[in-house]
Design brief:
It catalyses: apo-[ACP] + acetyl-CoA = acetyl-[ACP] + adenosine 3',5'-bisphosphate + H(+); apo-[ACP] + CoA = holo-[ACP] + adenosine 3',5'-bisphosphate + H(+). By secondary structure, the protein is α+β, with helices and mostly antiparallel strands. The protein is built from 8 helices and 13 strands. The structure holds coenzyme A and magnesium ion.
């Protein structure tokens, strides 16, 4: 299997309070239909998570292809998965890209991979979860409701005798991220029978920040080993785990997510000074904050 350059970027929203000028530059960079979509969020937190995801995608494509930052165009497939629309003049380029964004709580992640069109078609999916449960019901009741989403082997790992409730929750979230990353690579939403896809965890080390990523996790579908798939599991902070699913590709090296700053994500443009962009951003900044993340 070919090895490719992999990008793993993270953004911590708790480290950033957007100013109006920053927001105008961010909003000027995204497409009109995305502005409309973002404005529908009630909370500023969701607005900003999704906005940062769009900027990560733009930076990734622009960095990999040298296409000017403001010219990069995205579209969504029928299930909502974003993809890069290659400009006519770049159609002859030999670059094949795959990327996926995930956001939860204070984190936004992008995992991307870059290869050649001569390679067999490949893809990547990612998911991040906060390791917490405050759903009201007891954890065992919650697990009972989730029974059908995991295989018997997965439940036996989650409920290992050495796992206290906290360890069970962490194991549950690790599986959840792996399934979501897999499903997001396929782009099929929740139409996969999740019980038929079963992950066997990498047990060489506990999943800790220092030991991240763990790369030995394997997948079986209907009992068949999925040898064309590879997985990385990350612990980004003590409370956030993530997974990356690689289909038909392997990263050149396994590495941690790199935390970026807002200034890394934008390229300034005169469009930020347009009155409609300014008015849009002023309106967005009036949205309420969630009480805590
Ligand atoms: N496939 C892959 N990526 C998609 C996508 C799709 N069909 N639709 C959107 N995305 C991308 C977008 O960049 C999106 O960001 P945006 O909302 O700001 O545009 C991002 O992925 C969202 O990912 P994430 O933040 O991880 O959201 P999610 O985990 O709530 O949703 C779905 C993921 C919508 C793609 C899908 O997997 C889903 O419906 N999940 C339902 C949950 C479930 O039952 N999971 C079972 C796991 S055990
Ligand atoms: Mg998710």
């Amino acid at each position: 299997m070919n090895k490719h350059i992999c990008t793993r970027w993270a953004f911590d929203l708790s480290t950033w309070t957007p100013t109006l000028p920053q927001l105008t530059h961010a909003v000027a960079a995204i497409q009109a239909e995305e502005r409309t979509r973002l404005m529908k969020f009630h909370f500023i937190d969701d607005f900003l998570s999704s906005l940062i995801g769009r900027l990560l995608m733009r930076k990734f494509v622009s960095t990999c292809t040298n296409e000017p930052y403001h010219q990069v165009q995205f579209a969504r497939d029928v299930r909502g998965k974003p993809y890069w629309v290659q400009a006519q003049q770049l159609k002859t380029s030999s670059t094949q890209l795959s990327f996926n964004v995930s956001h939860q709580g204070k984190l936004v992640l992008l995992a991307g991979i870059r290869g050649s069109k001569a390679d067999p078609e490949f893809g990547i999916g990612t998911d991040v979860m906060k390791i917490e449960y405050n759903g009201g019901k007891s954890l065992s009741e919650f697990f009972r409701l989730m029974q059908s989403k995991f295989s018997p082997q997965e439940w036996s790992y989650i409920g290992r005798p050495q796992h206290n409730e906290r360890a069970q929750l962490k194991a549950f979230m690790r599986h959840w991220c792996l399934k979501e990353a897999y499903v997001k690579e396929l782009g099929v939403g929740i139409t996969v029978d999740l019980q038929k896809i079963s992950f066997a965890m990498d047990t060489t080390h506990p999943l800790e920040e220092a030991a991240s990523p763990l790369c030995g996790t394997t997948l079986c579908c209907n009992g068949t080993p999925m040898s064309q798939w590879h997985f990385e599991e990350h612990l980004l902070t003590p409370k956030y785990c993530a997974a990356i699913a690689f289909r038909n590709c392997l990263p050149l090296e396994h590495a941690k997510f790199e935390f970026l700053h807002f200034e890394d994500l934008i390229e300034r443009s005169a469009a930020a000074e347009q009155p409609d962009v300014l008015a849009y951003c002023q309106k967005a900044l009036l949205k309420p904050h969630k009480r805590h993340q």
